[in-house]
Amino acid sequence: MADRRRTWRWHRSPLRRRCDVVEAVVLLVLSVLLAAGPVLAGALAFGSTWQTALRQEQTRHSTPAVVVDDARSAAPNPAVRPSNGETTATVRWQEPDGTERTQTVPLERGGEPGDEVTVWLDSSGAPTEAPPGPVARAVQSSASGLLAAAGVGAALLLARHLARERFERGHDRSWGREWMEVEPRWARRYHS
């Protein structure tokens, strides 16, 4: 009996209205999207983040450099210094063609002038951050996949809720109009 009540919109019936069919189709489509959408969005976000991290790993390389000047120790105000332990320093390194380059770059650990450090360069030779390692890549990819799935799921749940609410308001207005037509006839029949 419960199954018949849930599926009455799909069967031919003199009580079935066009708005009932539209409501059933819209809610069915939103339910299917709610089942598949978050999984698909999560998988796409995971794959995209993973591929970006792999591309960074392939296009970045490290090179040894020598600290020329420790910019952090030269900063006059300690409030200007970064609090995460990262420092900036002027370093010198040699490119594959033999030319020397000098530039101020962020370093994970500070260094005194003359210390050897590792600098990461992108494909054009500009200093950049180190690519994420395998664990960081997995964590970042998983987090982006979960966030995308949660976002799409929440948006679809909200859309489904708003659609149901709108359909219910339409039913209430329709039933109100029908009652305004029928109620006077009923009132005369029972009050005469």
Automatic annotation (TrEMBL):
Lineage: superkingdom: Bacteria
Annotated region (Disordered), positions in chain: 95-133
InterPro entries: MT1774/Rv1733c-like
Keywords from the named record: Membrane, Transmembrane, Transmembrane helix
TM region positions: 21-46
Record-linked PANTHER family: MEMBRANE PROTEIN RV1733C-RELATED
Protein name from the UniProt record: Uncharacterized protein
